[in-house]
Design a protein that fits this description.
The complex is a heterotrimer of chains A (283), B (541) and C (317). By secondary structure, chain A is mainly α. Helix content of chain A is 75%, strand content 1%. The longest helix of chain A is centred in the first third of the chain and has 41 residues. Chain A is flat. Chain B has 541 residues and is α/β, with parallel strands linked by helices. Chain B has 3 domains: 203 residues, Periplasmic binding protein-like II (D-Maltodextrin-Binding Protein, domain 2, 3-Layer(aba) Sandwich); 182 residues, Periplasmic binding protein-like II (D-Maltodextrin-Binding Protein, domain 2), CATH 3.40.190.10; 66 residues. Helix content of chain B is 49%, strand content 11%. In chain B, the strands form 3 sheets. In chain B, strands 1, 2, 3, 4, 7 and 12 form a 6-stranded mixed beta sheet that branches. In chain B, α10 packs across α19, α10 packs parallel to α20 and α19 runs antiparallel to α20. The model of chain B has no long low-confidence stretch (mean pLDDT 86). Chain C has a domain of 172 residues: MetI-like (MetI-like fold). In chain C, 68% of the residues lie in helices and 3% in strands. Chain C has a two-stranded antiparallel sheet. In chain C, a hairpin with a 5-residue loop joins β2 and β3. The two termini of chain C are 15 Å apart. Classes of the chains: A mainly alpha (283), B alpha/beta (541), C mainly alpha (317). The interface between A and C is large, with 91 and 99 residues. β1 of chain A pairs parallel with β1 of chain C.
Chain lengths: 283, 541, 317
């Protein structure tokens, strides 16, 4: 790109400025809850009541809130990491296979099967919870982390298959044909063509599934009865049930609970942005 | 590009490491859990109040020690389920058969046939173990205490009357505490405003005190409000006041002359036109309620229970109405000295409100609370029952009361002097009824409640809308579902009856028949009353 | 890439391909369809959530048709759906704004900033918004006082609306005035940016090449014209997809109403939506069979809406 003329540059800047301002205005409102969460996490209730909106000086920060948060969240962390990672991995494993089926071939029954997937998005699920529970019971899965993992990846099939199918359909046909000529099986085509070509979207979907499982609280609460097995969501809902809310402690606990997510975002930001923008998440 | 790849790799491998750690943790735990010979007893409740969970932990550890001394390896685990999700949790646990051995049973309000925590008579019958056979035997843990040899049920202040299910003819739960409702106040702040004056004992004094507080705050530019309220505790206080106004009406409407007001009788009386939302008693109770409502912080109906406490402990309010169950939470939270006094209801001599009441309300019917039931068919329910024996023993209950700051449920257990003010008032007259008596009537009342606040000077608007919105229909709805439920219970008892008939036609058999007759009679009475009323085309069913 | 069509004998020969969809299919059939279908069956029973069930035919459905609460909940939800569709505007605008920004670097950073709030758990969002709405401490009342909006509202109320919802002497209690509940629910989450939907729109906008803009510039198109003539038609597919998602999400949703207003839907029951009523009937009143019937009706409505959306609002890609 050739460097624009100085006056032209100024003109561009002038034209760009309102756009930037508008974006900043919207984004700052969007970031408000995060800001609140962070600044509240170092206050105690009195400080918060006197000054709910602005951060206090670092010297007054109440680090004990974080100690409390870690103490509360700590025991649940391992379970949650276990469920979220395994659940997200399995979600994608199965969804990639199903998406391959739908994207590559139009087998007899294709439309019927696809509508089976899509219809699920329309089902409201409050009253289903009791039949589901009885089902898990008869499968001997109650009070196990596996139940949460299985429900996680069963529930994630529709969304992920939907998106991956779109993505795989857009991959160049030649790649698959070349692989087929080389005598690659379907499985090898998935390993050698689909996964490398759609790495960004797979990474992104992984993070999304992970996030979803990370934040889940209703199912763990109902399925798990053993305190050792509790997940973060359960721990956090207790804070909601407390009769005197220590806002600082609550926010600190939530912040501690978000640290793994922040880590993933920090390192994989570019991948995530690329994956989301890659056009896979379209109609 | 390369840098991104490295970052991505770092990100995902960090996650991988975390996962491995988690995996190790989870796998390791599974091994530990299989340690043989340890019996686990789990009990569940919804009490997240300050001090209670730690008290239960103390009691659990004590019990484990006692068992260890007997050579039994026992682990007691408590599960505190937040109130908001308790109904869902309960239903799924019971239906799924994975429930803990012991679950807290809430008092079922007679009108809705259901407790706010999702417990129904059906569920108790189906999923809980009757303990009737045991309640007349002494509690083994009371040996060597003042209660030695006393039958278990007689060791409770109410003789376990609350634990007896009159539909199922059996005892189902073991209570640990008693609940009463009081007014808490900020002692230093109160002294600052009123000097050494004692807290108000009567309604007019209370109103005057509230006015003084408002004036005091205004004069000093403070944001000071008399009472801290929320959608949870404000109705409790106002209902306490409003309930005094139906004392006489409730007795008049009660055709069976039971001492406690009977909700289905009251609803039928409404349908017959014996009272309505504009009756002087109801108008008075609504006015009374409005006069109290004016003294909460603005917008109180919008906020949750914790916000009221927040206001109070941050010294923005002088009073907060709260139950004895909030005592410890408040003491932990408040950075100041707490005062507690009785609810200052109107005196009989009160010019506006005295004539509808017999006198100050009694708390004799409050009975016991925080009751636990045994889940039927659970593993080692013998030990679970033993644990309940321990919790409700002289020593166990004393330990409970001492650590939790809650009232004990067992007689002769010493009550800490700070708790004396919470002890139920036995003298007085029962408050009768409020407008919400079942699921539908309560929903209607909750929905229209805002009108009392939007038009604070007169309840007329509320009365208009309330009746227009179909209070009668809601009464019919509640009565019908009550009656269906009773008949279903009667049907279910037939099996039991057949069993008794085959086995031995003893006292229990005749008791059950009596009970069935009585229940069918009341159900069909409601049914016939309802069909007469609907036939006269006054109401549509 | 067009999918390879296979029929009859060839498919039989390549039967292994089916193995790839089988696990997913089995999963959803067992864990999603089985409970759902058993809920359909149970909608014809009087069922309290236990073992005891009594067949009552269509009674749950006829009751539902005569249920005034359910009827008014559908009115409420229609308002919320329309509002939900309008609430997509800021997301579209933001996507267009970001897309039009010349610097790639800034575009990237704005995208990053957009997804950062995703680390905030849903519960925290609800806590904080609830706090914004607090009558005495909340940000909304504070800023209304600051900018004098409140006195304008009070004037409006006293002279035009006669709601007595805005009173000069007391703070506005947003969640306690029946007339303010739906507005509050609509305002909730302002500026209503869904990171995912912005990304969906951005993906659509990406297909616009620089030359299209240059041509438009030569024709002297204003930015509004550029939006209506170039950008909006191109993201129409994405907008449609989003509309479906909003409609489905709103129709099924009840969590927000439950957490804010409780299971009775708040003052005058104005916040009652079908999902919440389903929850209320199931877990508060113990009428699981009836709740299943409401669920079925919701499903049918969603299915019909989706069908029409696909059939008549078709936009060519």
């Amino acid at each position: 790109m050739n460097t624009p003329h100085p006056t032209a540059a100024a003109a561009i800047r002038k034209r760009e400025l309102p756009k930037h301002t508008a974006v900043w205005c919207i984004l700052s409102l969007q970031l408000l809850p995060l800001y609140m969460m962070v600044q509240m996490s170092v206050k105690n209730n009195t400080e918060f009541l006197l000054n709910p909106w602005f951060p206090t000086a670092p010297a007054q920060w109440n680090w004990a809130n974080f100690a409390y948060g870690i103490k509360l969240i700590g025991p649940y962390l391992a379970n949650t990491v276990f469920i979220a990672t395994l659940g997200a991995l399995l979600t994608l494993f199965f969804a990639i296979m199903a998406a391959y089926f739908f994207a590559r071939y139009r087998m007899p029954g294709h439309n019927l099967l696809w509508s089976l997937f899509i219809t699920l998005m329309l089902l409201p699920g409050v009253a289903n919870i009791v039949p589901l529970f009885t089902l898990l019971k008869s499968m001997n899965l109650l009070n196990t982390l596996w139940a949460l993992i299985i429900l996680g990846f069963a529930g994630g099939q529709v969304f992920n298959t939907f998106i991956l199918r779109n993505f795989i359909e857009d991959l160049p046909k030649d790649l698959f044909e070349a692989a087929e000529i080389d005598g690659a099986s379907h499985w090898q085509q998935i390993i050698n063509v689909v996964i490398p070509m759609s790495a960004p979207i797979i990474g992104t979907l992984f993070i999304l599934s992970f996030l979803h499982l990370w934040n889940e609280f209703m199912m763990p609460l109902i399925i798990l009865s053993d305190a050792q097995l509790f997940t973060l969501g359960v721990g956090l809902i207790y804070l909601d049930g407390e009769y005197v809310k220590q806002w600082g402690q609550i926010m600190a606990a939530f912040l501690v609970a978000s640290i793994p997510l922040i880590m993933i975002f920090l390192f994989c930001m570019k991948l995530f942005v690329r994956g989301l923008t890659s056009g896979a998440v379209k109609g | 590009m390369n840098r991104d790849k490295i970052l991505n790799t770092i990100g995902f491998s960090l996650l991988g490491l975390c996962f491995l750690f988690a995996l190790w943790n989870v796998a390791f735990r599974t091994v530990r859990e299989l340690e043989p010979g340890v019996v686990t007893i789990r009990f569940a409740h919804w009490q997240l109040e300050g001090g209670l969970r730690s008290t239960f932990d103390i009691l659990s550890r004590e019990y484990e020690k006692i068992c260890a001394a007997r050579g039994l390896k026992v682990r007691v685990e408590q599960q505190a389920i937040p109130e908001r999700v308790f109904p869902n949790w309960l239903v799924t646990q019971l239906v799924g058969g994975k429930a803990p051995q012991i679950i807290a049973i809430d008092n079922i309000t007679s009108g809705s046939g259901m407790s706010p925590k999702g417990m129904t008579t059906d569920r108790i019958a189906r999923y809980f173990e009757a303990i009737s056979a045991r309640v007349h035997e002494p509690n083994p843990y009371n040996i060597g205490t003042p209660l030695e040899g006393v039958p278990w049920c007689d060791t409770f202040v109410d003789g376990m009357s609350r634990s007896y299910d009159s539909n199922l003819l059996d005892y189902y739960s073991v209570p640990l505490s008693m609940y009463t409702f009081r007014l808490f106040y900020n002692k230093p702040l109160y002294r600052e405003i009123f000097g050494d004056a004692p807290p108000p004992t009567e309604y007019r004094e209370f109103l005057k005190a509230c006015a003084t507080i408002t004036a005091y705050g205004r004069a000093r530019g403070l944001n000071l409000v008399p009472i801290a309220g929320s959608k949870y505790n404000a109705p409790m206080l106002t209902d306490y006041f409003a309930g005094t106004q139906t004392q006489k009406l409730g007795r008049r409407l009660n055709r069976f002359n039971t001492l406690v007001s009977n909700d289905s009788e009251v609803m039928l009386a409404y349908l017959r036109g014996e009272w309505n939302v504009r009756s002087p008693e109801i108008t008075a109770s609504l006015r009374l309620l409005q006069s109290i409502n004016r003294n909460f912080q603005p917008g109180f109906q919008q906020v949750d229970r914790d916000s009221a406490t927040f206001y109070f402990v941050q010294e923005r309010c002088v009073f907060v109405s709260a139950g004895s169950w909030d005592n410890t939470s408040l003491r932990i939270q408040a950075p100041f000295d707490l005062g507690v006094c009785h609810i200052p209801v109107p005196a009989v001599s009160d010019p506006d409100y005295g004539r509808f009441m017999y006198g100050p309300p009694t708390e004799a019917a409050n009975g016991t609370a925080l009751a636990f039931g045994l889940v039927r068919g659970a593993a080692r329910s013998d030990l679970a029952l033993d644990f309940l024996h321990y919790l409700s023993s002289y020593h166990g209950n004393a330990l409970f009361s001492k650590h939790s700051g809650w009232l004990p449920s067992v007689i002769k257990v010493p009550v800490d002097e700070t708790l004396e003010v919470f002890e139920p008032v036995i003298d007085g007259y029962p408050n009768a009824f409020g407008l919400g008596m079942g699921t539908e009537t309560s929903r209607l009342r909750d929905n229209d409640y805002y009108l009392l606040q939007a038009f604070p000077d007169s309840p007329q608007k509320f009365q208009d809308v309330f009746e227009r919105n179909g209070y009668g229909k809601a009464c019919i709805g509640d009565l019908t579902s009550w009656q269906t439920r009773v008949l279903r219970i009667v049907t279910r008892q037939d099996t039991l009856l057949a069993a008794y008939y085959e086995r031995s036609r003893d006292r229990k058999f005749y008791e059950l028949i009596e009970q069935q007759i009585q229940q069918e009679q009341s159900a069909y009475m409601v049914d016939s009353e309802l069909s007469t009323l609907t036939k006269e085309n006054q109401w549509q069913r | 890439m067009a999918a390879v069509s296979m029929s009859g004998r060839r498919a039989l020969y390549n039967w292994r391909i089916y193995l790839y969809v089988l696990p997913s299919l089995g999963l959803i059939l067992t864990f999603c369809y089985f409970p759902a279908i058993s809920a359909v069956v149970r909608s014809f029973f009087e069922w309290q959530g236990g073992d005891y069930m009594q067949f009552i035919g269509w009674e749950n459905y006829t009751n539902a048709f005569n249920d005034p609460v359910l009827r008014s909940s559908f009115v409420t939800i229609s308002v919320l759906i329309v509002a939900g569709i309008i609430k997509m505007v800021p997301s579209i605008l933001l996507a267009v704004l970001i897309h039009r920004i010349a610097s790639d670097r800034w575009q990237y950073w704005y995208r990053v900033l957009l997804i950062i709030p995703m680390v905030v758990p849903d519960l925290v969002n609800i806590f904080i918004w609830k706090f914004f709405f607090d009558p005495n401490l909340g940000l909304i009342n504070a800023s209304f006082d600051l900018f004098g909006i409140k006195s304008a509202l009070v004037w409006l109320d006293q002279h035009v609306l006669h709601w007595s919802a805005f009173r000069p002497d007391s703070p506005i209690s947003w969640l306690n005035e029946p007339r303010l509940i739906i507005p509050s629910l609509i305002f909730w989450g302002f500026p209503w940016i869904g990171a995912m939907s912005v990304y969906i729109f951005l993906a659509g906008l990406q297909s616009i090449g620089a030359e299209v803009y240059e041509a438009a510039e030569l024709d002297g198109a204003s930015s509004w014209q550029k939006f209506t003539k170039i950008e909006f038609p191109l993201i129409m597919t994405q907008v449609r997809l989003n509309v479906i998602l909003v409609v489905i999400g709103t129709l099924q949703g009840y969590g927000l109403q439950y957490l804010l207003l409780g299971p009775a839907g708040g003052p005058a029951g104005r916040g009652m939506v079908p999902g919440l009523w389903m929850f209320n009937r199931a877990f508060i009143a113990g009428q699981f069979g009836y709740a299943c019937a409401i669920g079925m009706m919701l499903f049918l409505i969603i299915a019909v809406l989706t069908y029409f959306n696909n059939k008549y609002i078709r936009v060519e890609k």
